[in-house]
Design a protein that fits this description.
With 298 residues, the chain is mainly beta. It is built from 3 helices and 12 strands; from the N terminus they run H-H-E-E-E-E-H-E-E-E-E-E-E-E-E. The N terminus is likely disordered.
């Protein structure tokens, strides 16, 4: 547009000069060209309601008694802040995996998508002694879930709590409820689950943190379930199968700057209710280890 205006001004001056006898000395104009700056664009986006970040996780996959492959999932998050306390976020992912099992090859596939609405500062630490936020999520499962008669979508309601006790110790917890939207009438499908996450976090050396994460997962699956007590020999029949798992995920994190962070973790499930044992057999060997990178673009 700036160049077009300069051309029009030059043509108009030329026509006026031809119609008059007065000598007009055209003034010299200098055309300043603007250059594109990617950093300037990012600065503008950082001041806008939009934000974008990436998260890449690489880890092993655990079988019943041993590690049986690896998986890498890269997620993209696009958020929009509606108000200072309300936001929408859409995330999707790409998953690469390579199982060790014979006859199986590496593959790449879509990892699903999630639309989230979040309300922040429902409770604040200065007024209520604890921070609280709430979320509602609609989850679209990836394609490989559609290959068998399972749920293809779910909605999730979450309540997040965080309490900072000192500048070096924070305790966070999330209560999560999921209801599955099933695409089959099969009775043995997952119907709903309830999770509790407890994440105490210890900060040290300014940029380092240690989080011994603990999770409780209670799942309800439909269908007739027959169980035989090993000690008494009695048979128990129920219409729902309930299972509870307790996970332990210690993590060491490091923040390079406010945009980039990374970490190492160990993911294990030492306790499962369905095996009638306090500790699951082989839970250490079947655990997963991995690392992650998190980057905020704007």
């Amino acid at each position: 547009m700036k160049k077009i205006l300069l051309v029009l001004a030059f043509v108009t001056t030329s026509l006026l000069a031809q119609e008059t006898t007065i000598n007009i000395t055209p003034a010299t104009t200098s055309d300043t060209s603007s250059t594109f700056s990617f950093e300037g664009l990012l600065d503008d986006l950082r001041e806008s309601p939009f934000s974008m970040s990436f998260f890449s996780d690489f880890g092993t996959t655990g079988g019943a008694t041993d590690i049986n492959g690896w998986v890498n999932e890269t997620l993209m998050y696009l958020s929009y802040k509606l108000t200072p306390y309300d936001s929408l976020r859409l995330n999707t992912s790409l998953v690469f995996s390579d199982p060790i099992d014979a006859g199986k090859s590496a593959k790449a596939e879509w990892g699903g998508a999630t639309l989230r609405y979040k309300r922040s500062s429902i409770l604040t630490e200065d007024k209520h002694g604890v921070n609280m936020s709430a979320e509602v999520r609609l989850n679209l499962f990836p394609n490989y879930y559609l290959k068998k008669p399972n749920a293809y979508m779910s909605y999730s309601v979450r309540a997040n709590f965080a309490k900072e006790f000192t500048g070096y110790f924070t305790l966070a917890s999330t209560l999560r409820y999921d209801e599955y939207i099933r695409n089959s009438a099969a009775k043995n499908l997952s119907r709903r689950k309830f999770n509790v996450y407890i994440n105490p976090s210890f900060s040290f050396l300014k940029s380092w943190s240690f989080t011994p994460g603990i999770s409780f997962n209670h799942r309800i699956r439909g269908g007739t379930v027959v169980k035989i007590d090993e000690k008494t020999g009695k048979t128990e029949v129920s219409n729902f199968e309930r299972s509870t798992h307790i996970g332990f995920v210690p993590e060491i994190g490091y923040s390079v700057n406010k945009e980039l962070s990374m970490g190492l973790y160990w993911d294990s499930t030492p306790i499962a209710s369905h095996d009638n044992k306090f500790l699951s057999p082989g839970w250490g060997k079947s655990s997963a280890i991995g690392y992650y990178l998190s980057y905020s673009l704007f």
